[in-house]
Each structure stands twice: as C-alpha cells, then as structure tokens.
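Journal club prep — side note

Before the paper discussion, L.F. wants everyone to see what a predicted structure for a comparable chain looks like in token form. Sequence:
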Amino acid sequence: MHKLSRAYVDRYDVIAVEDLDSKNLSEGESSALNRYIANHAWNEFVSMLAYKASQAGKQVIEVEAKNTTKSCSNPNCDNKVDKELTDRTHKCKECGLEIDRDLNAAINILNKAISLVGQGLSEVKALRHNDLCWNHFDSSKSCG
C-alpha cells in the first residue's frame, strides 16, 4: 500500500477515489467481518494516499460510488447498464462503448471528482477512453 500510494502521488496532482459504503460490498453470514476487513484496508489506503498527497501539495477527492459501474462513461451517453458482479466488461447497447467495467467506473469516478471541484481545476479535463493507460489488466500495454 505504501508503494502504490507513493506512485499515485508522484504521478498525479489530483487523485479521485470512491467513498466506499462497505455495507454493500459483501453479503452472507460473515458479511460483518468481510465489511470490516474491506473497509479497514480501503480506509488505510485512502488515509496513506491523502497524507502523502497533502505533504506533496496534491489533492485526493472522495466521491460517492453510486452508479459509477452502471453509468456509461461515454460523455455523449447517459445510459445505465445493469451488470452482475461476474460481468467484467461494460457493454453499452445505446452507444456501443465496450470497455473493462473497472475502467468504466474509474472514468466515472474521476469525472465526478472533476465536477465537484468545478472551476478550481479548470486545467484538468474529463478523461477520454483513449487517454488512459490501463495496463493493470493487460500487461502487454505499457504506460508512456
């Protein structure tokens, strides 16, 4: 977590994260323990990230996670696509956008953060899909 939070702070001036409501993360008999573990790890990571960002004069913005996975991240489309947890690809029947579901959510989270800060980040533009380096899921792609 230390290396990852440092890498984000070194690379980005503004970092958008979802404000997880961990009660929706897991279900079942052991859900209370699962929620505690997931919430603790996420909060610890965000705390590290926020601390390092503030020390570097950078910003971490938490946004509500609601509909970030369902909403199509194409700026010209306002469709919501229902998905099962096992559906790993966002496939919008309205605009034809087909991308990794986590990438779709990440774009939506960033764009929500940008809209929250408004004019304060006038030099930051909403992401377009082809602007992203998403080698986390595909090691054959590299960030340049």
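L.F.'s comment for the group: The mean pLDDT is 78. Keep this in mind when we get to the figures.
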